[in-house]
Amino acid sequence: MITDKQTILLAKGGIKGWGNNHFKSSTNRTPYKKTNGTLGEKKFINLELLLIADVGLIGLPNVGKSTLINIITSAKPKIDIYPFTTIIPQLGVVYIEKKTFIIVDIPGITKNSSKGHGLG
Known about the structure:
Rossmann fold
């Protein structure tokens, strides 16, 4: 899955069966009948999670997230004095001795960000 809210059918379900309630009538209020449904597909699926970063910096606007990325990596995100300078995530690679990891600068989090308000 590559895009947001993308759906993929991995296995088709079976056909439902009918339970007691389906067979209820005016003369038989508590039937003990059922029909079996059919089984769906059975598959073994191996999913792999692809991460874009090892570390994410989150926080309020204008707290220095981009400045930190600028100092500890070779990335050069736009830095300015007004809020929401960062509007798309910025990636940087941190090199420590013989190891590396990817750090991402996320746009500022504000009240109701989870509801689509602001840019975070």
